[in-house]
Give the backbone structure.
Amino acid sequence: EEILHKRVADVEILHKREADAEILHKREADGEILLKREADGEILHKREADEEILHKRGADGEILHNREADGEILHKREADEEILHKREADGEILHKREADVEILHKREADGEILHKREADEEILHKREADVEILHKREADG
């Protein structure tokens, strides 16, 4: 009977060891699941980091586009300045032409004065000739 009890006890110990082995296997499986979850977490973090990089690249692209737009605005302003300088130069040319016209008008006026003086001299000579004629008539008289 003792042998039977001992064998029953041995069977119970065996069953307990099998149960412990199953628990151990389950814990190992749980460990593998945990490792897989950690690996999945790392993959997720990497994806999030990749998304952040993509967002940053998108922002960098927007900054680049803004800089290109700023460059275009700068070129337009430079072109506008060149147009303004040209208009200023055109204005200076116009003022010079106006001054030239004033000089021409003054020369024309000087020419008219000269013609008037010449006409006055002719009248004076004619009067002198008339006076000489009168003196000669008086002398002949």
In short: The two ends are 205 Å apart (CA to CA).
